[in-house]
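## retry 2 of 3
previous attempt timed out at serialization; input unchanged, resubmitting
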Amino acid sequence: MSDATEFHVDADLCTECGDCIKAMPKYFRKVEDEELAEVYSTELVDGDLPKLEKVMSECPGHAILWRK
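## retry succeeded, writing output
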């Protein structure tokens, strides 16, 4: 996919719930020695976009954002 669909986790907004990691472990993981989530793959498969958008909208801290 293009760079326009690149996404990231804003560490300041992350509530450490881990929902994104549970829902999409192909793209998210826990930051080592912390409870925060991070994106480790932005190679988004087209079929995963609706699920990612759902995870983004349900994130309690609204921490998963599109990179501009």
